[in-house]
């Protein structure tokens, strides 16, 4: 059957998808936008240069039940930059809901991490430099967003992709760091950048290992997977353009205070506090994804009693994490999760 005028065929792997509810565009569309009709089949709904009509795109979501809009993979950088530019303009506007700003930050951050994971060795230095710029923008927004932590604790949807988990880990670590007197914009930038970069070493693993979730791995595959923080560190260290704190967080982002983490099973006193922040935040985010729960509920899967009583009632669970860090988290959780739920 011949294609209709606006229908066309293409390889699915040549496309990027973004939720229609979270897609943003300048007045004129920068590149073609399509809906997916089936495997390898697409319907073009906007052409490059046409005026963008948000209501018209959302009508497809309502009338046809489609959730995503698609554009060519080569336009990913264009969309990252345009989305970042929009966030920089709206970040300080109090009337714009945090949900809108967060969605904007999530989209371009996840696309950036996706690009970083798929890039060639030659392209990596430029992408890491771009990451510094993006994280500086995000840090400026986070610094002036008091509602961020209650919003994060009550998120209803956590995608299981590496990109989503890396982004959310950075956001949680950044929001939690604000509870400490030593926090700064530079600290936030380092936490975000390290979280975004921490899994680049997974791309160096055998494909049959890289595509599996850890809980589905054999013992041998798990041992290979647990090398990825060291692989990430070595890949990034060779670039010679990253602060030592960022490199250390990347290397230690799966280490635990009791020495049961990986890849080097180091104990708390040998681990950077920023690394401990990323380790705890990453565990909360992964639990949220695994158990399909908001982070405030998923945290209870890690530590059943989210209060200082846990130090005596659940010593084995809390031993993995830094005591001062958990104390701050318990204080924050008791106050802000309740406020977020009531908002």
Structural write-up:
It is a single chain. With 343 residues, the chain is mainly alpha-helical. The chain folds into 2 domains: 1-74, no CATH class; 91-296, Hypothetical protein af1432 (Orthogonal Bundle). Helices cover 55% and strands 7% of the residues. It is built from 16 helices and 5 strands. The chain has helices at 54-64, 76-90, 98-118, 124-143, 148-153, 162-177, 185-197, 207-210, 219-225, 228-237, 244-252, 273-291, 295-302, 310-313, 315-318, 323-342; strands spanning 7-9, 15-19, 33-38, 41-46, 68-72. Strands 1-4-3 form a 3-stranded antiparallel sheet, with no helix packed on it. A hairpin with a 2-residue loop joins strand 3 and strand 4. Helix 3 packs antiparallel against helix 4 (124-143) and helix 4 (124-143) packs across helix 7. The chain starts with 6 loop residues before the first strand and ends with a helix.
**Helicity, in percent?**
40-55%
Average predicted local confidence, pLDDT: 90
Radius of gyration: 21 Å
Name the quaternary structure: single chain
Count of alpha/pi helices: 16
Strand content: 5-15%
Given helix and strand content, the structural type is mainly alpha
Query: How many domain units?
Result: 2
Q: First CA to last CA: what distance? A: 53 Å
CATH homologous superfamily heading of the largest domain: Hypothetical protein af1432
- The number of E-state strands comes to 5
State the CATH topology of the largest domain: Hypothetical protein af1432
Principal-axes geometry comes out as globular
- Describe the strand arrangement of the main beta sheet, using strand numbers: 1-4-3
**CATH class (first level) name of the largest domain:** Mainly Alpha
